[in-house]
Amino acid sequence: MSESYENLENVVGAQLARNPRPSPEDIRILVGSFRTIPGFQVSDEEAEKLAREFEVRHGVTMTIGAVLKQPDYTPWLADAKVDIDPYYWQRYAKLLGQQKFSGHVIATLDDVTDRILGLMENPKKGGSWDRRGMVVGHVQSGKTANYIGLMGKAADAGYRVIIVIAGIHNRLRNQTQERVDKGFVGRDSARLLSNKDDRYIGVGNFDMTRRPVTFTNSLRDFTKSTATALGVPLQTLNEPAVFVIKKNSSTLKNLLQWLSEHSRQAGAETIEAPMLLIDDEADNASINIRHGKQEVSAINSQIRSLLKLFQRSCYVGYTATPFANIFIDPDTDDEMLGADLFPRDFIISLDPPSNYFGPSKVFLDNSEAVVRYIDDNEDALPIKHSKEFEVTSLPQSLLHALRSYILARAIRLARGEENFHSSMLVNASRFTNVQRQLRNELHSRLEFIQSSVRVNGALPAEQALADPEIAALHASWRSEYESAEFDWGVILPLLHVAAAPMSVYEINSRAPGGLDYAGHSATGLSAIAVGGFSLSRGLTLEGLMDTYFLRSSIMYDTLMQMGRWFGYRPKYEDLCRVWMPEEAEGWYAHIAESIEMLREELRTMEAAKATPEEFGLKVRAHPDTLIVTARNKMGSGGKDVVSIGIQNSFIETATLSRQAPVLAANRKAAQALARSLADLGYPASSASQVPGGYLLHKVPVAPVTEFLMGFTNHPGSPLTEPEPVAKYIEDRNDSELAYWDVLLASRQESSGGRSDTSLGRTIHCQQRSAGTRSDSATLRVTNKQRVASRGIEKTGLTAEQIQRAEQDYLERNSSRFANGEKVNFPDLIYRYVRQRPLLIVHLLDMLPEGTIPDGDPVVAWSISFPRTAIPEKRVEYVVNTRWLRENEAVDFDEDEMGGDRD
Fold this sequence. Notes:
The chain is an alpha/beta fold. It has 32 helices and 29 strands. An eight-stranded mixed β-sheet has the order 1-8-2-7-6-3-5-4, with helices on both faces. Strands 18, 20, 21, 22, 25, 27 and 28 form a seven-stranded mixed β-sheet that branches. Strands 10-16-14-11-13-12 form a six-stranded parallel β-sheet. β4 (about 215), α9 (about 225-230) and β5 (about 240-245) form a beta-alpha-beta unit. α14 (about 360-365) packs across α23 and α23 runs antiparallel to α24.
């Protein structure tokens, strides 16, 4: 684009940032008003293009999330604003406008950060006080932008010491420092204590009349010598002091020692300056990491000691994983509520802007458009491999992903985008030695492609296709992007321009260098990043378009944090692709649903004026804590008992025994259920035909309980253990769970396939594939570990109930669906209006043929439990940690296990 176009974009963008909801007419009037000025003159076509871009940008909306707080909280911020000069916040808001944030999003961020600040304490309040809070965001959704805004408002209000505890790797800490420099400090901290003059960056380009003191820089973490050399005592600060430190025991120890030695008033035990501590990724290391209890206690106790060192302090933890160990690690509820870093004073849930490319959009709304399955890796790069594994070739799926990345970049060039960052992520091994080999193999393959498109990319299309590399690129284009707006004749000559700047980088603690996006701000960096854990938590990959993810962890926080593909993809969301095993997609979809459910609970609990402690207990009682808790106790071996509740949940037997006697016994259990229901006046022949099968309405609970107790569960399906499920039902079988809807799942008659009459009615068996990780003793139902079809939880509801559930969901997620996109309603919303539990009995025709020796249908079951209106009684489950080990519940990286030399 021309310089005039960029000038016009910047000046109009700054003006529109002050308008939360400009109309299309407002945008065009503003563009037209500047076009007559020299330096801003553009063609009519360019002016219209810019106006359309601003329409998209300012169509982005954002809503304020749920808030839980203690009932004795006393508001203070509204009255205090009379004396607050919003210097730091206004600089930051201006920077956000320059960075193309919509006015609506900036206005909402203003409201959200006010809300968080207001739940902290007034820094002008005397005496001793401390506050504990948590902000629950989304992976790559703008948590850093949120807490930098909070830092500015806290500084405006009077907080004089601000400590940000960033990730556990130097790269992430350095990246965080750079963002704090731009958004809050205004100076390049790399020049700290150097002979070079200050270089103003970010907010510093607007106003530097006030100058925060920074005790760390973008090159090095905190050191006592550097802090002492600055010679700035905290007790005499007029402007805030900022520390951005790594979450590391040695760093915390040094900071504690220096603060004790240099910053306390003579004879005082504490520092008087009011302090805000922001704990980024609060679920990681602050309470519990996987190395063992001793190291956990060290970091946890150091953070607590840091807080106690200040007479007035506020702790705000930020996390994207609501299953954070802060709620789950303690052995008892009392311990959890008494934990020092528990957010006892407030919990705030952040809603992302409508253009957030997050778990729900990727895995629930339209996964077919984004996700591609890896099913060809076992020979070249098996999921399970040792650190001595030799990489001699690359899976074809990885080569396809590489070509798709090149093609996506070419399409962006065809769209008129220039000088943009673009990235591809390859996270396929936890071992640095294997990562290095992958990097080398990818580098060699990329060089082949670069050579081909350089030599033959300018040839006529037919001649160019004689080159094998270009022919392979053409095949990838046809499978991924043929429906995009450009034909092959447009893309072919751009392949050289797209591929030439690309480089492959190894990103781990043992590899030199890193991804220098800042150093390529003028031209854009094109990077293929190969790594493991270092690529997971917090590190931002600018312009990420393609991800190749080949990992096996089933841990929620690990999986979600590895999801670097989440974030914002303006103008190229349609080009993004994620390659992963089908089983991994199943886990991500499950986690996305579980997190949606907990966010729904937050909204419900806010309306009921619940407290943070009550939400902590809710998370701790969530069925998925079976997995998370077991991971925390992995070192204990044997079995652990976990007390959970299963109201408002969906459980099913996705892992089954493959042994013939068990399969036969489960068929008999289903037949006994059908006979018992018939004896009570509910024969299968009288069931109503509904989408998905045949439904019996409002049947008594006794046959259901008998069926569950007669069903032989597989130990690999801990949540469907009959005893705790039956106990939960029995506790309520005289009230909420006294009557059930029972669905005999069946395909449409015209769909063909196996049929069965053993339940008293012709059932057309559902066809399901055996998961690739099935073995001689275990049958896993599909790679996604799913039995029931999507939408099944509508069954038994009236049209009015379905409409109410869907309308409520749309209202609660208005910003997410603001652009009129298709809505795939998650099943969990129907549990909120369900009045009776739903049992689904499945007769499965397992594929391929011969999966089950006798060929008879395989019985499985699902239950949708409604919400409870009476106090929930939890039931005890036994967690078999051996099973979790066998399923690779823990997926440590070498970096994480001590290989990190940062």
